[in-house]
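Today's session is about reading a structure prediction critically. Students often jump straight to the picture, but the first step is always the sequence itself: look for stretches that repeat, for charged clusters, for runs of hydrophobic residues. Only then move on to the predicted structure, which in these notes is written as discrete structure tokens rather than atom positions. Here is the chain we will use throughout the hour.
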Amino acid sequence: MPANAFEPYQFAGKTLKNRIVMAPMTRSRAPGGTPTRSMATYYAQRAAAGLIITEGTQPSVQGQGYTDTPGLHSPEQVNAWRTVTDAVHAEGGVIFAQLMHSGRIGHPDLLPDGLVPVAPSPVRAEGQLFTHTGMQDFVVPKELTENDILATIQDFASAARNAVAAGFDGIELHGANGYLIHQFLSTHTNRREDRWGGSVEGRIRFAVEVARAASEAIGADRVGIRISPGAVVNDIHDDPDHDATFMPLLRELSALDLAYLHLAERAGRDLTKRLRAAWPNTLILNPDTGSTPTGPAELQLIEDGTTDLLAFGAHFIANPDLPHRLATGAPLAQGDRRTFFSGGDDGYIDYPPLPLNDEAGVPS
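Below is the predicted structure for this chain, in token form.
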């Protein structure tokens, strides 16, 4: 029997109210790395999603790659996140924290005490990023030593424990989009010849060991991972034979019995189907829709079994009640992308939603 996007789904010991996922979207609204009350409002407004995955959250001071992104490495951050999770749970929502170490995607201006970005190998990313002092070129990152790698793995585990202490229902490891875990997977950014590089077995080791450590810390049923084979963002370059890297990765991760795989589809539907067949647990798909946001047309990917859960990004910004609009066929408000990273609450928690007639499911 075909699945329906608006049916409940059993997931990580929870019953999701639907199969719609709010995708992780960095918004840079946490000055000093600590979540704010506005963030609690923002996520609670969107608790109608079956699952919320937060913006990228650094597991350590070293892991920050953008301005005003939140962390999960201090008691103050844990306490502040508790306000967010309490607000979401009060609305009946389920929320996972995405743990993101940005690796070489960062700048010394964003880090304290003379720290610099780190990576598997000292390979500078092409391009620039925004800092509080303006746009800056990426720098050559410091190559992680063996001890650095082991410490970073424990940073992820500690952040996972902090997430549970903060009231999160689980965590997602960000292994996509050219950040640290992805940097270990790619031969472009990982040029090591020790056990953390070289062969496929070596290059996937960091991702597997981070997942293992997080699972041992909070339970595998509370841990998911996001991957993006074929993504070219942040000057990452995967080998053209995606199966050669990602199939062995999935075999190792499958043995850990993680809650889910979150696939950012960037290398075609055929690869998605092969990864789907190779993954034994829940699949969340962020489908490749080109330059347009994931929308109502993609709901059929749940119905035809391509995925279990479907991640929506941009449309959740201007449509806090997105699942209701999708279910009723109501029109979708269009957000102003100029406010995506703006300060304050403008375009963050104060988008005026289209008034709905709940009976007709159309604008009133």
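Discussion point for the tutorial: The longest strand covers residues 51-57.
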